[in-house]
Amino acid sequence: MVYCTKVDVRKRLGEKVTALTYDAEIDDCIEEADAEIDTQLKPYTTVPLSSVPVRIKHISADLAAGIFRSRRSPDGLENKFWKSGQEKLATYIKKTYAKGGLYKG
């Protein structure tokens, strides 16, 4: 199960929602983004998530857009999508799992 769609990623990238350009690469970016989310959530819950919270959908789209941009940007250029996704994921984990002592470690 993927946490976001190509349309979600394209909206962040400013591409036309109906464009088919880069479909395979965006799928790869989503897979990588979802793996990052699963890695960070694994100490707290069973992954992959069977039901995708809206926040995770948005975080996945941010991370996937960040991965897509990083593949095309010069080294050292700050990636706002990746940074935003990481910050949102950390906040999500803190508010959803860590606060209640649900660490599975």
Condensed summary:
The protein is mainly α and 105 residues long.
- Rg from alpha-carbon coordinates: 14 Å
Residue share in helix = 55-70%
Q: Quote the distance from N terminus to C terminus.
A: 24 Å
Count of alpha/pi helices: 4
Q: Kindly give the count of domains.
A: 1
The parts where pLDDT drops under 50 for at least 5 residues are none
| Mean pLDDT across residues | 89
Number of strands: 0
Largest sheet: none
What spatial form do the alpha-carbon principal axes imply?
globular
How much of the residues is beta strand, in percent?
under 5%
One letter per element, helices H and strands E, the order comes to HHHH
Structural class: mainly alpha
Helices and strands in order:
Elements: H1 6-13, H2 23-41, H3 54-70, H4 80-96
Helix pairs in contact: 1-3, 2-3, 3-4
